[in-house]
């Protein structure tokens, strides 16, 4: 699955058809990019999920990540949580490139991120890379012990 194309398509659908595909892919790469382990198609969703489940984020982000990885309904994420997760500076920079304001882009990401992580974990691929349900439980247990 080409996650970059999927993400760009989801982002373009929300932003509107007046966006250049290459510009949207470049913007998405800046927001969620990476070349490290877990990066597929230029996106590093594993790093995003790791940050959501890390000790420096709120418990609600951990619960949201688990819902996105699971087979049930995706929990919503707020614009403030998106800004916390990705960084306001990065969102502001990319919003300028896309001709959007920062809050509009953050709002768009509240719709795109759950779908993108959910679709990338279909069949368990992203979940498996985190050690499956047991790995998530271990991560959560470690987090709660801190």
List keywords for this structure.
single chain; about 150 residues; mainly alpha; Arc Repressor Mutant, subunit A; two-stranded antiparallel ribbon; 2 strands; about 70% helix; about 5% strand; disordered C terminus
Structure description:
- With 146 residues, the chain is mainly α.
- It has one domain (3-145): Arc Repressor Mutant, subunit A (Orthogonal Bundle).
- Helices cover 70% and strands 3% of the residues.
- It has nine helices and two strands.
- It has helices at residues 3-15, 21-32, 45-53, 59-69, 79-86, 88-98, 102-120, 125-129, 132-145, and strands at 39-40, 43-44.
- The protein has a two-stranded antiparallel sheet.
- A hairpin with a 2-residue loop joins strand 1 and strand 2 (43-44).
- Helix 1 (3-15) packs antiparallel against helix 7, helix 5 packs across helix 7 (102-120) and helix 6 (88-98) packs across helix 7.
- The longest helix has 19 residues, at 102-120.
- The model is unreliable at 36-41, 129-137 and 139-146 (pLDDT under 50).
């Amino acid at each position: 699955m080409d996650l970059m194309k999927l993400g760009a398509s989801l982002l373009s659908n929300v932003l509107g058809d007046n966006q250049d595909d290459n510009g949207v892919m470049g913007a998405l790469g800046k927001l969620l990019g990476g070349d490290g382990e877990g990066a597929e198609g230029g996106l590093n969703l594993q790093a995003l999920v790791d940050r959501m489940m890390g000790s420096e984020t709120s418990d609600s982000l951990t619960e949201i990540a688990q819902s996105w990885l699971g087979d049930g309904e995706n929990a919503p994420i707020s614009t403030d949580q998106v800004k916390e997760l990705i960084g306001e500076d990065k969102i502001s920079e990319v919003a300028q490139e896309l001709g959007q304001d920062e809050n509009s882009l953050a709002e768009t990401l509240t719709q795109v991120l759950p779908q993108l992580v959910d679709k990338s974990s279909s069949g368990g691929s992203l979940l498996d890379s985190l050690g499956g349900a047991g790995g998530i439980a271990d991560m959560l247990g470690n987090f709660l012990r801190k």
